[in-house]
Design a protein that fits this description.
heterotrimer, A alpha/beta (424), B alpha+beta (109), C alpha+beta (496), A: alpha/beta, FAD/NAD(P)-binding domain, Immunoglobulin-like, 3 domains, 7-stranded mixed β-sheet, 5-stranded parallel β-sheet, 9 helices, 28 strands, C: 496 residues, alpha+beta, D-Amino Acid Oxidase, Chain A, domain 2, 8-stranded mixed β-sheet, 12 helices, 23 strands, globular
Chain lengths: 424, 109, 496
């Protein structure tokens, strides 16, 4: 059963989200919820079946899913709510969350602290304006990885990979392991953009040629990719005429960069850094909106998941502390209600502690005129907190009443105060 | 990085910045080993494949044989993280383990 | 593959063919609409600027002018009946500098001659007020209040669906090969799926309208020269243009626009490149550079950083002279019942303003049939109303909640960027004109058109299509046979 109000809601159950949720709970947040769009926890780690994870945190080299399993198991033991197969549609700066899932329908939730941990998405063919036709067989490396490792299907037989980032190189090996042929890896930069270790173990080991200073000039093929025209580029990143080569293949994999997923960050009204693409954050991982925190690839792109976990832990701790403070402060606030013959009272809400410093003035208007002497009374249920005599009250004339400092104790007992007007 | 060999032994290394480098280079030259990660078929699970990994690196020349061996296997869900899929794979002394849980289909809500 | 008798066969289910089918569906006629591709509207109708033109641009006295203005007036009622998205926003022909300003008045005069109402010349300050990011050298604009924007595929599917629901038979993957003639009378057509007989054939084959009419021996000199137009699409969160902005037109094209769309994105384009290949919709470096140069002339503050997609459309440019010999124009529409053969309504060269003209062309086709002696008897049960299917992203939270309560599959978001739900996808797969490929679903729901360009949704859509169609995921394709996404199960083959 979902609660209406949480201490911490975490959006995204990848390594950042899992760490944040776990640490938030351990720091003392009472009600923690993780919202995840996939049907299981773990995020992108579930499709990163290669090893290289956990060397710092666990002092062991393990595959992505194994790394995730540690946190998934820990979360399970901590009474943290999860909402899976659910998409967060909107979050407001007041930390109201709208989400939808097949299983629980349309849900509206409130939270004291929010953690954005949605990760990042891949740069697309369109964003690099790759010329040519638009056949089937053009994938970002991550989408291909999902098909191969989770859905269980190969997206092609002969591959060209654009980009020497780690995802591209890892996929080169993965596809080779599953019987496909990787013809070429093209890299526009004059240097390898991923780890050397991956170059050795993914490309060199399997005799997959890497060409630096190269890119895709255009994609060919009407219904399905039939070939890639590659071209060498000069120091100004311009294509060198005459260096074109047509590489027959049926699939082009793009590994051309990651961008923080900021749809929700935008909706929440947090300020975004145009350089990283993610939210501005302070040392607590808090964004420009109080109570909204962010961790992981959604802030900037990491290359080691262990550091993502660290960021998530830090974020979760701070989010929990924010929520705990909010809970305490809420007890400090008393609401003002309009009672008999009062149309409205301002302020609407008051910090009880403010009476320690000075008397607090309430202002109101009455609904109907009473041309006789009256009491204006501030009540906590049946207990009178303070009152003031007036010769008459009229809607056209605003009425003031001060809650004196001597009423401090009486106000501490209240969660709500009402103001009414009665005849003397 | 420069490596001087005398026969099969690494005699001198220059330019390596990490102490493990000597072991690594020696290993790479004489007995290159790799961690192998791949997937194995699962019957009746929430996913059709389970990711698996070698507990420690296996000799590089045996990788393709290991992949072929793994390809012949079909597990039955549920699979648990750490389950031994192949013990002492190809006589290398290395076990192949499951990298995560794959629940059986009916378990999932 | 059996022979069948129809009253009318329409060749080509683009916007024109679909509109003709829809208007014909009112009458007691057996109508067959055939389409060579795997889905309707994949030709010229699939990629264009989505503008319902006001009609000042075509040369007065041409069919283009007449059909444009007549069609434009029909869109409000049609959008109400068929429930496609249409906004009568008005459009602007923007003059940069004093020389261009002088041309605006002649354009307005041309509009008046064509019968276009509601045109006003604005000065530079007016334009700057309405469009903050316009080139500060703007000297003025022709504001045509009857111009509009729409979802072009939405128009096609709405018209075709209404036709099908009212009894028209639609056959996709059906390629016209030849006419069946008895003397000079067309009595049917041959296709890759058999022969079909009919009393009338309507040629609305767009890019291939020349090929079709040549098979009947008509107009051998008529040739469709495809003119490719490329576009950039921008991220709606980053770039907001309020209006439809044209440059002052040149001899060959309406020019490179900067315009908003009904989806809220800003798009720029098209250029105009004559090509030979009727299926070449490739994006080119040169084409993109050209539209970029044109666009920043109108809105200098555009930034390519925020482009999220490119696409290209093909105009079926014809070379037919205007039927009125006094009008010197050689690229007019062909809308005729030719004398040389019987039983054909011949449409050719329906390029821009084809979309705007489409309902008027349909009405004209019916007039031609009546003029040729067809007794068109109305069906009492004809239903001109086509109800739109729910669009989750356009609904208020309370409406969304109700929708999900009635059908939980609307609670599962498949395309994150455009908030398209599984319920909508399933509805399109089982609609009167079913979507069976990824692109077909994309055209109908707008999924995969946002920032991630299908990166997140593709595996899920493949899964849903496979499930709903009862086939293996290996059979699911991007745009029909030959464009399947997947080749084999992961574990099917030995590693080499």
């Amino acid at each position: 059963m979902l609660k209406e109000k949480y201490d911490v809601i975490v959006i995204g159950a990848g390594p950042a989200g899992l760490a944040a949720a776990i640490e938030a709970k351990k720091t003392g947040a009472q009600d923690v919820l993780v919202i995840e769009r996939a049907q299981e926890l773990g995020g992108i780690l579930q499709q990163c079946i290669h090893n290289g994870f956990g060397l710092l945190i666990f002092k062991k080299d393990m595959p992505g899913p194994a790394y995730a399993q540690h946190f998934i198991d820990e979360l399970a033991g901590l009474h943290i709510d999860t909402l899976l197969d659910a998409m967060a549609l909107n979050v407001t700066s007041e930390r109201h969350v709208y989400a939808t899932s097949r299983w629980s329908g349309f849900v509206e939730l409130d939270t004291r602290a929010l953690v954005l941990a949605m990760g990042c998405r891949e740069r697309t063919r369109a964003q690099i304006a790759l010329p040519g036709t638009r056949p089937a067989g053009v994938y970002t490396a991550g989408t291909a990885q999902r098909f191969v490792n989770i859905e269980g299907f190969m997206p092609g037989k002969r591959f060209v990979i654009l980009g020497s980032g780690d995802i591209g190189m890892i996929m080169a090996r993965r596809l080779t392991f599953e019987g496909a042929k990787v013809e070429r890896v093209l890299e526009i930069m004059p240097f390898l953009t991923g780890l050397t270790r991956n170059y050795v173990q993914c490309l060199m080991d399997y005799d997959i040629p890497l060409q630096l200073h190269h890119t895709v000039k255009r994609i060919m093929g009407n219904d399905r990719v039939e070939a890639i025209e590659s071209v060498q580029i000069d120091k100004q990143r311009q294509p060198i005429p005459g260096t074109e080569e047509t590489i027959p293949c049926d699939t082009l994999l793009l590994s051309v960069g990651l961008i923080p997923e900021n749809e929700l960050s935008r909706k929440a009204g947090v300020s975004l850094d145009s350089v990283t693409g993610g939210p501005f954050v302070d040392e607590k991982m808090q964004t420009s909106v109080p109570g909204i925190f962010a961790a992981g690839n959604v802030v900037h792109v990491y290359d080691l998941v262990d550091w993502v976990t660290e960021a998530g832990l830090l974020c979760g701790r701070n989010a929990a502390q924010y929520a705990i403070t909010e809970r305490k402060n809420h007890g400090r606030r008393v609401k003002m209600k309009a009672g008999d013959n009062v149309r409205y009272v301002v302020p609407h809400v008051m910090d009880k502690e403010s009476l320690a410093e000075s008397a607090q003035r309430l202002q109101m208007r009455v609904t109907l005129p009473i041309e006789e002497p009256v009491w204006v009374e501030v009540m906590n249920g049946e207990e009178r907190v303070t009152r003031k005599a007036e010769l008459y009250v009229r809607p056209g004339e605003m009425v003031n009443i001060d809650i004196p400092q001597s009423a401090y104790d009486a106000v501490q007992r209240a969660s709500e105060l009402s103001v009414r007007v009665v005849r003397r | 990085m420069d490596v001087t060999m005398e026969g099969e032994a690494v005699v001198k290394m220059e330019g390596n910045s990490c102490k493990r480098g000597i072991d690594y280079v020696t290993g790479e030259l004489k007995d290159p080993r790799r961690m192998v990660t791949t997937t194995v078929r699962v019957r009746g699970g929430v996913h059709p494949l389970a990711p698996v990994y070698t507990e420690s690196p296996i000799p590089k020349p045996r990788i393709l044989d290991l992949l072929a061996e793994i390809r012949r296997i079909e597990l039955k869900a549920p699979v648990k993280f750490g389950d031994v899929i192949i013990k002492n794979a190809l006589g290398t002394g290395v076990n192949v383990l499951a990298s995560r849980n794959i629940p059986a289909k009916s378990e999932a809500s | 593959m059996a022979d069948r008798e129809y009253d009318v066969i329409i060749i080509g289910a683009g916007v024109v063919g679909s509109m003709v089918a829809r208007f014909l569906s009112r009458y007691k006629l057996d109508v067959l609409l055939i389409e060579k591709d795997s889905d309707i509207g994949m030709g010229a109708s699939s990629a264009n600027t989505a503008i319902i033109h006001a009609g000042y641009d075509p040369k007065p006295g041409t069919l283009k002018a007449e059909m444009n203005v007549m069609g434009n007036q029909m869109f409000d009622q049609l959008a109400g009946e068929l429930n496609f998205t249409f906004e009568r926003r008005g459009d602007y022909v923007v003059a940069i500098g004093p020389e261009e300003f002088a041309k605006l008045e002649s354009l307005r005069q041309q509009g008046l001659e064509n019968g276009v109402p509601g045109m006003v010349i604005l000065n530079g300050a007016d334009v700057r007020r309405r469009e903050r990011n316009i080139n500060p050298e703007v000297s003025g604009a022709l504001w045509a209040t009857t111009g509009g924007i729409c979802d072009p595929f939405g128009v096609v599917i709405a018209a075709a669906e209404n036709a099908v629901v009212n009894g028209v038979t639609l056959m996709t993957d059906t390629v016209f090969q030849d006419f069946i003639m008895e003397g000079k009378r067309i009595v049917g057509i041959k296709t890759n799926r058999g022969d079909f007989r009919s009393r009338w054939v309507v040629n609305s084959a767009g890019l291939y309208s020349d090929v079709v009419m040549h098979k009947a021996g008509l107009r051998p000199e008529f040739k469709i020269t495809p003119r490719k137009g490329e576009y950039y699409v921008f991220d709606k969160a980053e770039i907001t243009i309020n209006n439809v902005l044209f440059p002052v037109p040149s001899a060959t094209s309406k020019g490179i626009l900067v315009t908003t769309t009904v989806h809220g994105n800003t798009i720029i384009g098209p250029n105009a490149l004559e090509i030979d290949d009727k299926e070449d919709r490739s994006i080119t470096r040169e084409g993109l550079d050209e539209i970029w140069q044109g666009a920043i002339n109108l809105v200098p503050s555009l930034s390519l950083r925020y482009s999220i997609a490119e696409f290209a459309g093909l105009r079926p440019g014809g070379n037919a002279p205007c039927a009125n010999p006094d009008v010197k124009y050689d690229k007019d529409f062909i809308i005729e019942i030719p004398k040389q053969v019987d039983g054909l309504v011949n449409l050719g060269g329906i390029e821009s303003p084809g979309l705007s003209s489409s309902p008027a062309i349909a009405v004209r086709v019916i007039d031609l049939l009546k003029g040729a002696g067809e007794k068109l008897e109305e069906k009492s049960e004809w239903n001109p109303i086509r109800r739109a299917r729910p669009r989750f992203r356009d609904m208020l939270p309370t409406e969304q909640k109700l929708l999900i309560e009635n059908d939980p599959s609307y609670g599962r978001i498949i395309c994150r960027c455009e908030n398209v739900t599984e319920g909508e996808i399933v509805a399109e797969i089982h609609a009167p004109i079913p979507a069976r490929t990824y692109d077909a679903i994309k055209r109908r729901t707008w999924l995969g058109t946002g920032r991630c360009q299908g990166g997140f949704d593709t595996p899920r859509v493949v899964e849903i299509l496979a499930r709903e169609l009862g086939v293996s995921p290996l059979e699911i394709s991007k745009k029909g046979k030959g464009s399947e996404f997947l080749v084999r199960p992961t574990k099917d083959k030995e590693a080499e």
